[in-house]
Amino acid sequence: MFAAPGSRRFQAPGLSQSIWSLNTSAPAPPAPLVQPATPKSAPPPLAHMERASRVLLDMLTADNVAVPELADMLQTHPQVPYSSSTDKSFVPFYKKRTVNIPDDMFNNYHGQTQYLGILPEIGRAWMTLGNKLFLWDYHDGQDLNTYADQPNLITHISLVKPRPGVFVDDLKHLLVICTPVSVFMLGVGTTPVPGTSRNPRTELKLYSTDMHISTEGNEMAGAVGTKNGRIFLYGRGDGGLYELVYKSAEAWFGKKVELKNHLAAGYSGFLPFLSRPESEQLAALVVDDDRNCLYALSTQQSISLYSLGLNGEEFRHIKTLVGIRKRAQALLPGLPALSVPDFEIRNIHIVDVDSARNIHLVGITNTGVRLYFSHYRRNPIGMGVIGAPALNTPRIPQRDPSDFDLVQVRPPPIDLSIADGGGHFNTQRSLGSEAPVIFNDVLSSCHCAGLTLAAQGTQNLNDPDLILCIAPDLTKIINQTPSGSAAPGSFGSYPYNAPPKPPLVEYATALHVGGLTWAMAETRRPNQSWIPPSSPPPNPIFELATQFSEPPRQFLIFTNAGLSFFVKRRAVDQLRHLLEQYDNDARSAQLYCQSFGRLESAAMLLAVAAGNTFIAHEGNDLANLDDFSLMAVSPDMSLNAKLLFYAQGGAPLLKAGAVTGSQADTQILFSGRRDGFALYFARLVRPIWRALIVRKGDNGRLESNVFDSTLVVVQKNLEALRSFLERNPTLFQASTEIRDPADQEAWKIELASVSQLQGLLSQTVEAISFVLLLIDYQLSEIVAQCDQPTRDALNTLSYDDLISSKKGRDVARGLVNAIINHQIAQQTSVDTISELLQQRCGSFCSTDDVLMYKAIENLRKAKETRDATERNQCLRTSYKFFAKGSAQMELSKLTEIVAEYKNLRFAKGVVELPLQCARDWDIDGHGYTYWVDGSQPNDPRGEFFQKRLACYELIVDALENFNNAYKALANAPPTVESEELRTLKDSAYQSALSSQDDAFHSYLYDRMLKHNQKDEMVELATPFIEGYLRRPPITLERADLLHLFYVRGGQYLRAAETCAALAESTDFDLSLERRIQLFTFAVNYVKSHTSSELGRQEAGVEFLSDLEEKLEVAQVQLEIYNDLLPRYAGGSGRDRQGLERLNGTLMNITELFTNYADPYNLLEVKLLILHVSDHNDAALTNAIWDALFERVVNDGSSVDQQIKAITAVISRLGQRFYPSESSFPLEETAMRLEQFALDRIPAVHSGWVPRVLLEAGVPFSQVFDILHKLYESQIPPFHQQAAVQWLSGDVAVLVSDWVTEAIRPQSSIPAREFPANAVDETIDVYLRELSRDNVETRRLFEQAKSSLRRYY
Question: CB neighbours of 881 closer than 8 A, spacing ≥ 6?
Fold first, then answer.
């Protein structure tokens, strides 16, 4: 309606220019400090460790099921022929050495009654001569202990474990000593003696226990003990089975030591002499501690089974098996060894739970027949047993035995040749000069892990005894194992259509022992850990699984010539011998490897090549039996093993249908070299891999679960393997160029797997070093300094977990920190500790860790020193190290460090270390780009930004802390403390504001706004404050601060643009007055800007014009609002909505006129709109003035009121609109005033009209011209004489006032501008036409004329 061409004031107001687009030349927000990195395709190292660990676990699992259980192999026909050979390399046993009887024993035993035996648990052989007991350390050879503090003949001794709580904890064994009239006990104390042996010798001490009891003449013939400390004996005369009941003190109803006969009823059980004599006596007792069973062999060839209960504290007879000979003959008819008239079961032996699930006892007869017994009844119509538990049940039964029966018979070997004592066959005998050996007088025997040794006496007492040696022939067992039958089973638990099981093929030989056999036993095999590994152990029969991590089994045979050591020759020992002859006979070694298959032979060859420490010497009379070392493998032997390993290793093959490029291990068949490496590696770590690292000791303190000696040996072999592989980097490479793509793919997968295994190998070596270091530094104290989650995790952590899991790495990191803290507390240098850690286990103490520890030490020094210079130097050094290792720092640690820096008033560290962490923790810039992109919800990048925010918060909290501390002293008189706080605050803020991290600046400014620090913000001179204030989403607070920031910086034009954009914005709820204020600010800022600012002088002029126009329109809108507010403020409906719109939204002139001024008849506003829009419409203007006059006149109740009202309106509007003809038409206004005055004479005085116009701001000259024009126009009513004379009177008053003003001192009218001549001439005209009766008018004219003449 009112728009003029080219005018912008009539555009619809709004955010025509975004605050962000006002300055198109402003620099864009900075790019991320760290550009996002390209995602890595390779998995992290931990994934490699996990994959390699799974390979080892697969190998260990395969070992556990490599051979069937004994029960399964015994299902086949028992008369499987024995293997034998004339080749020394394949003889399963050899005699290593013989230790002579000490002279003191040898010189005294002739002609006296003696009893003897072996106590392998304490490394002693024993002999009694009358009342004397000799205990001989057979390792040392001559160390002899003698006991003779009682007068009676000693007939038997047994070594047992004591009951817990009865004796001191250091007493681990008791000697039960039997005489014809009593039984008494001695405590046995052992103290290790330092040495080089894996089983160090011990110093023995005997202690009196004051525990003895009379047997009332019933001599005890033997004793056995259980793991719980119970002691069972059998009487020689009455056949009774006794228990020696003992306790720490006597009680009202019990003695300190008692003998209880379990075969007698009632009170007679405690009175042996009242027992009923028995014609059948007991010949032997054996205890099965795993199954809590006791077996008693009688002289009548019956065997009784007793259950000791699940807790080992009960005694219950299960069954006595009689007629064993007939049962055996029924199982194996026609066997001559069962038909001899003097058939006798000479020994019974426990079958350990790892060797068999359902075979529990083996008896060995005088003819060498082995009888296998089970707790389950034999199936009378077929193979197997009845009532056997399922395969998935625990090996150790959870219930009492249900039965007892003979289930299988194994005949002795026939046609057996005799080898010499060193394992070499006597060629003269083998040529047939002597008849084959027939075993018909077995004196004593040993049986364990599928191995059997039995001593055969000779008819000629001058000839040495023969030792029957029987061992499983693993080459035939593993090669006959059908596919699909590798899973362990139980005797009789397979259906009839199950695949047949391989028979128990055994290797047999006979060796001369060099004397008359008195006793035999297996040497003690020490445990490798307190708590065994969680993975099930392999079947002891399958010695291939343990030959690299344990010494060979050894048996002690006590004869009148001394004590001989018989050693089991394992597969790797046999291979070692063949490799010694490899240069002369390579074929034998190759055939031997083929007999074991590619996998087993590769593992053994690698063991020899790498120099496994458990490869035994042969034929060397070493000073120490257990001394196996690298000396057993010569360089030439190692070279031969390596060549054969490479030659027989084969190549990897891609499986049919494999997906090319998948890189999955399941896609290929690995070569024998890779699998042999994995198998050897797995067997080396078997003792520790799934074993717990720590356990709670007897004193409640944590200690290593695996023994130090075990860790050292395992590490030694692992390090030898690692070193060997490093020296031979091409060991797993192809020998020829690979052209076929499928073969290339297979080799690629194989080499990747080998690399992962080698990485795991190195990690394992370092992990063991790490644990040994913990042990050296007092493991329990180190763990105590860890946090609770770390301690809890360590309690369940295995070595596998430590090396190949994130949980393990987290625990290791916590332990390393604890070691450092523990050593720092003892004033040990961090450099010393970290250097040791890196030397022994570098992967557990990385460079970043070392930097962290050095930083911690410098921080500690800074806290302790009192020298300010030294403190500052230590703080700067600590910051340098912390910053270098910040990528691996955790938030909790950073928080602690910042707190320390804050307490030490180190501003640089407080600010810059968290900033460094923020960058390093978001190294790929994900968090930064998340912030740049507006921080949208559910964006995974937000996790990285949260890490940044945690760092920023630490800084800002510290800044506020410094600021508050300074403010607390700011109003007090200046002190050194206040000056330090001011310097600290300024330095901290300077460091923070110097940061180039705009995300941090944004966080800092947000906190400043939150604390209403607006004045401080606009004073900031950083390159980021402007970007922060302009950054979307725009807020009113920040937009308001933006223009203040520009003003403080002298950028007035930008400040004006910001205010204008904010005034026009529809994004904020601004009142109309606030918008006008912003337009006013903008106008003022534009007027203040210099021509050089941004080179926009011309644009500034145009912008100012536009702003002024918009301001005028806004002011019109405000006037409308103020007019309508009193009327409709309390109303509702359309009027109320219109009023709210007026106050909240800018409108153009047309909208204001059409929607408000016209509908609400706002007459003065209409004139204002005409004035602002410069719209010339005479008819409209006159209509408005007519209505305005009419309203004013009508509102006045009297002429005087009307005059006053009109005077006020004309004065106000004239001062506002004059000289605008569009809103204040002067001529029409003067006409209306004169007409009003004419109509109200004499109420209106002459001169009222010109004086009203003068009050309205119209100059004298303009009023004079308008009235003179009316005078001469003769326009009605001024064509009548009365009207003309009235008008003359108004002119006379005007002229009089004009002249008076002109001649007044300090007049507002300059003298040169007053038209004296024209006025004088005009006065003459009026005087000529003035009527004579108009005296006052004439007087005024003449007086004015006189003044003109006087002054002009």
Answer: 851, 852, 854, 855, 858
Report the Cα 165 to chain-centroid distance in Å: 43
- What would the pLDDT profile of 1025-1048 be if each residue is shown by its tens digit? 888 888 888 888 888 889 889 988
pLDDT attached to residue 875: 94
Q: Which residues contact 278 (CB under 8 A, 6 or more apart)?
A: 238, 239, 240, 263
> What is the reported pLDDT for 488?
34
DSSP assigned state of 207:
E
Region 1196-1202 average pLDDT: 86
Element housing 459 (H / E)? none
Contact at 8 Å (CB) between 721 and 681? Answer: yes
- Cβ neighbours around 1092 below 10 Å, total: 8
In the predicted model, is pLDDT for residue 24 greater than 50? no
Give the β-pairing of 668-669 and 316-321: unpaired
SS3 1147: coil
**Cβ neighbours of residue 73 under 8 Å, at least 6 residues apart?**
67, 477, 501, 502, 503, 504
Partners of residue 205 on adjacent β-strands: 189
Tens-place pLDDT, residues 709-768: 899 999 999 999 999 999 999 999 888 888 888 888 889 999 999 999 999 999 999 999
pLDDT digits (tens, 9 = 90+) for 77-130: 667 778 887 676 678 888 888 888 888 777 766 656 678 899 999 999 999 988
921 contacts 951 by C-beta, under 8 angstroms:
yes
Dist. CA 870–CA 93, nearest whole Å? 72
Q: In angstroms, how far is CA 393 from the centroid of its own chain?
A: 36
Enumerate residues 6+ apart whose C-beta is below 8 A from 369: 328, 335, 337, 338, 409, 410, 411, 412
> Which residue, among 489, 391, 424, 371, has the nearest Cα to 72 in the 3D structure?
489
- What are 688's two structure tokens? 């520790």
Given a contact cutoff of 8 angstroms between Cβ atoms, the answer to whether 362 and 370 are in contact is yes
Q: Which residues contact 112 (CB under 8 A, 6 or more apart)?
A: 129, 130
d(CA 233, CA 240): 8
What is the DSSP secondary-structure string of 1002-1020?
HHHHHHHHHTT-HHHHHT-
For residue range 864-904, what is the model confidence (pLDDT) as tens digits? 899 999 999 999 999 998 998 888 888 998 999 999 999 99
pTM above 0.85, yes or no: no
User: C-alpha distances in angstroms, 1259 versus 490, 844, 1218, 1301?
Assistant: 130, 99, 10, 12
The distance from CA 775 to its chain's CA centroid, rounded to whole angstroms, is 25
CA–CA dist 1288, 225 (Å, integer): 152
**What three-state secondary structure class fits 560?**
coil
pLDDT at 280: 78
- Alpha-carbon distance of 12 to 1151, in angstroms, equals 10
- For the chain, how far is it from start to end, CA to CA, in angstroms? 52
Rounded alpha-carbon distances, angstroms, from residue 30 to 34, 457, 947, 996? 11, 97, 20, 9
Contact residues for 586 (Cβ-Cβ < 8 A; gap 6+): 644
- The closest alpha carbon to 513, from 553, 470, 561, belongs to 561
Contact 481, 539 (CB under 8 A): no
Contact residues for 27 (Cβ-Cβ < 8 A; gap 6+): 1023, 1027
Q: With contact defined as beta carbons under 8 Å apart, do 285 and 296 qualify?
A: yes
Omega of the bond prior to 1277 within 30 degrees of 0, cis?
yes
User: What mean pLDDT comes out for the span 1172-1190?
Assistant: 90
| Residues 636 and 586: beta-carbon distance below 8 Å | no
Largest Cα separation within the chain, whole Å, is 193
DSSP state of 544: G
Classify residue 1133 by burial, with Cβ atoms within 10 Å: 0-12, 13-18, 19+.
exposed
Q: Which letter does DSSP use for residue 505 in this model?
A: -
